Amino acid sequence: MKKNKSADTVITFIIDNKEKFYRLAFSYVKNVDDALDIVQDSIEKAIRKKNSLKENQSVNSWFYKIVVNSALDFLRKNKRVTLIDDETIENLFPGKYDVYSDIDLRKRLDELPIKFRSVIVLKFFEDLKIDDVADILNENKNTIKTRLYKALDLLHIQMDDFTD
């Protein structure tokens, strides 16, 4: 094997963080089966491409990028929206699930264009640094900052409009 992360390291990382990656996939597709398919597809891609992981590259951001790209590919191919009820969400995410205290915020977040929603989800729900978000989304750090501020501004404007 090349001088890079071992296959065992990659597999162990994925197994240790599978719930995180499922939540990320689910945040895109809002469907249990589709999210599982995306995670499975991402794992297959990661195993096939494990040798492309550079020595100084973070396994975390590398695999996040694979999951995000797989989810976006899925959305492009299927172009459908699926709604899910709160009880199902609570059953799927016991404990670690980020609880929305305001149902309007959840609706507004889902209404954001994907490029803004991705930044919000990765930054606030997955607790990633701006540099990691930029790497995952394959964008410039300043572009991600601009999208983050725009997304927060859109959410604020939308929430103000909704509550008036």
TrEMBL record:
Keywords: Sigma factor, Transcription, Transcription regulation. Residues 104-153 form the RNA polymerase sigma factor 70 region 4 type domain. Gene3D superfamilies: 1.10.1740.10, Winged helix-like DNA-binding domain superfamily/Winged helix DNA-binding domain (1.10.10.10). InterPro entries: RNA_pol_sigma-70-like, RNA_pol_sigma-70_dom, RNA_pol_sigma70_r2, RNA_pol_sigma70_r4_t2, RNA_pol_sigma_r2, RNA_pol_sigma_r3/r4-like, WH-like_DNA-bd_sf. The keyword Transcription applies. Residues 17-80 form the RNA polymerase sigma-70 region domain. It comes from the Bacteria. Belongs to the sigma-70 factor family. ECF subfamily. This is RNA polymerase sigma factor. The lineage of its organism: Bacteria, Bacillati, Bacillota, Bacilli, Bacillales.
